[in-house]
Write a structure and sequence with these properties.
This protein is an alpha+beta fold. It contains 8 helices and 11 strands. It has helices spanning 3-13, 21-24, 41-49, 79-85, 134-143, 209-216, 226-234, 244-252, and strands at residues 18-20, 31-40, 55-59, 66-74, 91-99, 104-112, 117-124, 152-166, 171-183, 189-192, 195-202. Strands 2-7-6-5-4-8-9-11 form an 8-stranded antiparallel β-barrel, surrounded by 6 helices. Strand 9 (171-183) and strand 10 (189-192) form a beta hairpin. 29% of the residues are buried.
Length: 262
């Protein structure tokens, strides 16, 4: 993680009251509505400062900024990515995620239904890459829509995350920074150090103080997943016309242009 970014976020997070991982388990929101936003670090710092009176920050093993390592699975022809690109409302995402701070790793399936709700299920695995054992193959077959033999590691994503919960404990807020993407097959890498992805997770679209503040800061929802973003940035010539306006918006938040054709 960028040491300057980590220092800034760690200092800000220390101004919040903490909430433990055990307490957060009661607010899992496995069937939820997700709203994503992107912004730069300058606006992010302002946003977080305005949350202090209404949100707690998750603390894990003494850390309030946690490290994540994720490998996304897809078919050889990128069927799950193309479902996003082609605008399918019902779609699936399969990933292996390692939670570095508590050394836990899960195989996770996220389904989005026709109403825009996200349903998430997961099973523990021993390490990243362990998705074809007897237990996980049964999980993929019973819960997912893809045969395990047709799934392959495609994109690895590493990032740092702050997780918050409102005082009413009805919503979670994740803030991801220092995103690093790597194409597992080619080894092509891409860093997004000066972009933050904010995700608001609720059981329903009730009033949200975080959403109100984002609106006042002129931060608008941008629906693009880290998997899709990583695929576009590390896979030359992959079709991405549906995401062009979102990529242009991300470009405007940074001081440099990405090496892909808009």
């Amino acid at each position: 993680m960028n040491s300057t970014n980590k220092h800034i976020l760690s200092c800000i997070s220390n101004e919040f009251h903490p909430i433990s991982l055990k307490e957060m388990e009661k607010i899992r929101l496995m069937n939820r509505i997700d709203i994503k936003y992107t912004t730069n670090l300058r606006v992010l710092v302002c946003f977080i400062e305005l949350l202090k009176d209404n949100y707690f920050v998750q603390e894990v093993e003494g850390n309030r900024v946690s490290e994540y390592d994720t490998i996304y699975l897809d078919t050889e022809d990128l069927k799950m990515y193309m479902d996003h690109q082609n605008g399918r409302r019902i779609r699936e995402k399969i990933r292996m995620r390692h939670y570095i701070d508590n050394n836990l790793t899960f195989l996770e399936i996220k389904d989005k239904d026709i109403h825009g709700k996200t349903h998430k299920q997961r099973v523990p695995i021993s390490r990243l890459g362990d998705y074809l054992n007897e237990n996980t193959s049964g999980f993929l077959t019973d819960v997912g829509h893809y045969s395990p033999k047709n799934l392959f590691p495609r994109v690895e994503t590493r990032f740092s995350r702050m997780t918050m919960v409102n005082r009413e404990q009805t919503e979670r807020l994740t803030i991801d920074t220092d995103l690093h993407f790597m194409n597992v097959n080619s080894g092509k890498e891409f860093d997004l150090e000066d972009i933050a992805i904010i995700e608001l997770k609720q059981d329903s679209q009730a009033f949200s103080e975080a959403r109100r503040i984002l609106h006042e800061l002129h931060v608008r929802p941008v629906s693009i997943s880290k998997y899709c973003l990583g695929t576009i940035l590390t896979t030359p010539n992959v079709k991405h016309n549906r995401f062009k306006s979102k990529l242009i918006q991300i470009n405007k938040l940074t001081n440099y242009k990405y090496e892909y054709s808009l």
